């Protein structure tokens, strides 16, 4: 354990400062496809009983019209966050007719591209902007890729904590600058160690063969409809997932907020010839992408983790970071847990809290380009071969067996877990670490191994296994309908969101071409031309 981590933990454990560790927030975004009772993709619109996908704060869509996204409020304890997520699911099922929510990160059997509907947000300029952005994603990446689901874990520490550390370390930076740099340091440590999350929680070692659309691949055949890799942990996070050539050279440096923002600003404004050939409009004059640049908007940059700031109306993510600094981080690499009805269990959340606290407090040198390539290789090895006997990763120039490094990391994370438990008076975080240690000792205990065992029990069919789990989760939620109070809360949100969308559509609208131009022109931070 580094002297910085020891010193910071001791400071936060001292009586005057203990309370600040209770203050951080946890939020979850869970994506899930709506499917028919037979496990095929649904073709119905976003359920009207859920409200408006454009304006509802907790129930929306991601890419496809059938890819629902459930967003919890931010809570100080992960158990409360998961209760809220459970409540959203129970309400959603009360309005879902006979459809099911798909239990896996990788999609069900997919129809032809033209039969996957892009999410629709109504006729307002804001709604059309979101829709056209998704048309652009379809052109750039194909629609199958836009049907992948994940768990996003939003994490922040109490802002007072950063001020305590800054004072103790004699920092002369402004509170905003210190906090932003501290979150970027957290992100760098996350990049060093996130391979461990993929080994411990990756749950997508197989996929339905329809996903690849006939593209060449190096996967093994498990059955007529299923492809896999025998030691994979997360094919979702491999090069089969959300990748393309335009983004391949885009690696924002997280060594400072300035360089991160500058890289994304460049990408949003840098033309990319293959996209220029397609154009922003089709032959009929309809918008088909927001720009012909490397990325249309910042959110198109696909990353396992992002620095974030809640945006204000009309503001873009880059502007929010520029103006007010980093407020929280969004962990994006977690697979949906197919064995959990809500897609993530409390134990995973407790482990993430200890892991992220460790990443936040541990010393975090800047990452060189060469070092970044090694970290990316460690991650790629783990998602494709994480359970392979004898697998090694590169640490400080040496090849180290994955379980050895994993146990070393757990030992370093343990003091952070113990501090969190001391605030609660229990052992939930240390217990979560112990459960993960067992997975390092025995790869068969990992979720990815459990998925392959279940596939064996289901005729080796990914579709059959996915449908079985989806039916199990549906039965759970339908047996536990929302309380009257919960139902009233979500009914109110649904009605409010529909009214807000109607209000937006009734208001005078600028011409959409002018609206897009104004949006694109607002993307520059003044310091980064």
Question: What does it look like?
Answer:
With 529 residues, the protein is α+β, with helices and mostly antiparallel strands. The chain has a single domain, classed as Creatine Kinase, Chain A, domain 2, CATH 3.30.590. Helices cover 46% and strands 11% of the residues. Strands 1, 2, 3, 4, 5, 9 and 10 form a 7-stranded antiparallel beta sheet that branches. A hairpin with a 2-residue loop joins strand 7 (220-223) and strand 8 (226-228). Helix 5 (175-193) crosses helix 11 (346-361). The mean pLDDT is 94. One of its GO terms (molecular function) is glutamate-cysteine ligase activity. Residues 10-380 form the Glutamate--cysteine ligase domain.
What's this model, at a glance?
With 529 residues, the protein is of the alpha+beta class.
Q: What integer value in Å does the Rg equal?
A: 23 Å
Number of domain modules: 1
**Unreliable segments of 5+ consecutive residues:** none
Question: What level of helicity do the residues show?
Answer: 40-55%
DSSP summary, beta strand count: 12
Return the average pLDDT rounded to an integer: 94
* Form type: globular
Largest sheet: 7 strands, antiparallel
Question: What's the number of helices?
Answer: 18
* CATH class category: Alpha Beta
Assign the CATH topology: Creatine Kinase, Chain A, domain 2
CATH architecture descriptor: 2-Layer Sandwich
By secondary-structure content and strand pairing, the structural class works out as: alpha+beta
User: What's the end-to-end separation, in Å?
Assistant: 42 Å
**Helix/strand order, N-terminal first:** HEEEHEHEHHHEEEHHHEHEHHEEHHHHHH
Strand content: 5-15%
């Amino acid at each position: 354990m580094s002297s910085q981590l020891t010193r910071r933990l001791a400071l936060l454990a001292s009586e005057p400062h203990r309370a600040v560790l209770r203050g951080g927030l946890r939020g979850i975004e869970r994506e899930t496809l709506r499917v028919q009772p037979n496990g095929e993709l649904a073709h119905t619109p976003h359920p009207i009983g859920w409200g408006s996908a454009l304006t509802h704060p907790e129930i929306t869509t991601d890419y496809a019209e059938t890819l629902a996204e459930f967003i919890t409020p931010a809570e100080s304890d992960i158990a409360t966050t998961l209760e809220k997520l459970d409540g959203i699911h129970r309400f959603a099922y009360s309005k879902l007719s006979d459809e099911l929510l798909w239990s896996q990160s990788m999609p069900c059997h997919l129809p032809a591209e033209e039969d996957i509907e892009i999410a629709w947000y109504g006729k307002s300029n804001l709604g059309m902007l979101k829709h056209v952005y998704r048309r652009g994603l379809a052109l750039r990446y194909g629609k199958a890729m836009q049907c992948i689901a994940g768990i996003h874990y939003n994490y922040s520490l109490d802002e007072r904590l950063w001020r305590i550390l800054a004072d103790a370390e004699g920092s002369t930076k402004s509170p905003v600058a210190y906090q932003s740099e501290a979150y970027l340091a957290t992100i760098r440590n996350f990049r060093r160690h996130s391979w461990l999350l993929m080994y411990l929680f990756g749950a997508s070692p197989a996929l339905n063969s329809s996903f690849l659309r006939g593209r060449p691949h190096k996967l093994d055949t498990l059955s007529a409809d299923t492809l896999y890799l025998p030691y994979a942990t997360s094919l979702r996070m491999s090069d089969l997932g959300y990748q393309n050539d335009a983004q391949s050279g885009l690696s924002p440096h997280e060594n400072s907020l300035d360089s991160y923002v500058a890289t994304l600003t460049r990408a949003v404004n840098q033309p990319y010839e293959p996209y220029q050939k397609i154009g922003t409009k089709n032959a009929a004059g309809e918008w088909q992408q927001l720009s012909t640049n490397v990325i249309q908007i910042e959110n198109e940059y696909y990353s396992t983790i992002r620095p974030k700031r809640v945006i204000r109306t009309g503001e873009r993510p880059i502007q929010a970071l520029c103006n007010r600094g980093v407020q929280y981080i969004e962990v994006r690499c977690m697979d949906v847990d197919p064995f959990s009805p809500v897609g993530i269990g409390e134990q995973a959340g407790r482990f993430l809290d200890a892991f992220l606290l460790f990443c936040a407090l541990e010393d975090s040198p800047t990452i060189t380009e060469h070092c970044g390539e090694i970290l990316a290789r460690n991650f790629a090895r783990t998602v494709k071969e994480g359970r392979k006997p004898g697998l090694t990763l590169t640490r400080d120039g040496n090849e180290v067996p994955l379980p050895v490094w994993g146990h070393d990391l757990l030992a370093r994370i343990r003091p952070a877990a113990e501090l969190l438990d001391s605030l609660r008076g229990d052992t939930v975080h240390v217990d979560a670490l112990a459960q993960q240690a067992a997975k390092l000792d025995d790869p068969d205990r990992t979720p990815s191994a459990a998925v392959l065992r279940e596939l064996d029990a289901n005729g080796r069919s990914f579709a059959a296994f996915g449908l079985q789990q989806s039916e199990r989760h549906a039965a759970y939620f339908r047996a536990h309908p929302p309380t009257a109070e919960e139902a009233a809360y979500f009914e109110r949100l649904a009605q409010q969101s529909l009214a807000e969308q109607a209000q937006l559509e009734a208001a005078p609208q600028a011409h959409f071409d002018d609206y897009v131009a104004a949006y694109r022109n607002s993307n520059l931070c003044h310091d980064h031309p």
